[in-house]
Write a structure and sequence with these properties.
Elements (H helix, E strand, L loop, with lengths): L2 H14 L15 H4 L4 H11 L5 H17 L4 H29 L1
Helix pairs in contact: 1-3, 4-5
Length: 106
């Protein structure tokens, strides 16, 4: 997937979740300073930042970092196994996102 398609895909997902509704400047044209020498990737990240949205990789990393310390405090083996399964799922999803980004950006 090319960079412009990847950015467009991310923007469309964000729009579908309604996270880009009622943004400052919505429906207004961009000023010339906002469009000159701007990359698609940079524009996509700036749009996400303005909407208060983080890239999925960052969200997954935060979830993983928050989950790891909780595993040590779980005494019940069934609950611990379920939490470890959740951690493995998050790590797998993060790996998929990282691999996709590497393939896309080369």
């Amino acid at each position: 997937m090319k960079l412009d398609k990847m950015a467009e895909h991310q923007i469309r997902q964000t729009q579908a979740r309604g996270e880009m509704d009622n943004l400052k400047g919505e429906g207004k044209p961009l000023s010339s300073g906002q469009t000159s020498n701007a990359s698609v990737e940079g524009f996509g990240y700036k749009t996400m930042a303005n909407a208060g949205v983080l890239p999925e990789e960052i969200v997954l990393k935060k979830e993983i970092a928050a989950l790891i310390p909780t595993i040590e405090g779980i005494a019940d083996p069934v609950e611990r196994r379920a939490t470890m399964k959740q951690l493995a799922d998050l790590q797998m999803r993060l790996g998929i996102h990282e691999e996709a980004r590497k393939k896309y950006f080369g």
